[in-house]
Amino acid sequence: MKQLTAVLLVCSAFFLISCANTNLTKGQQGAIGGGAAGALIGQAIGHNTEATLIGAAVGTMLGYIVGNEMDKYDRQQLNHVYERGVSGTPSAWVNPDSGNQYQVTPQAAYSGANDQVCRKAEIMAVIDGKQERTYTTACRDQYGNWILQ
Question: H or E stretch including 110?
Answer without folding.
Answer: strand 110-111
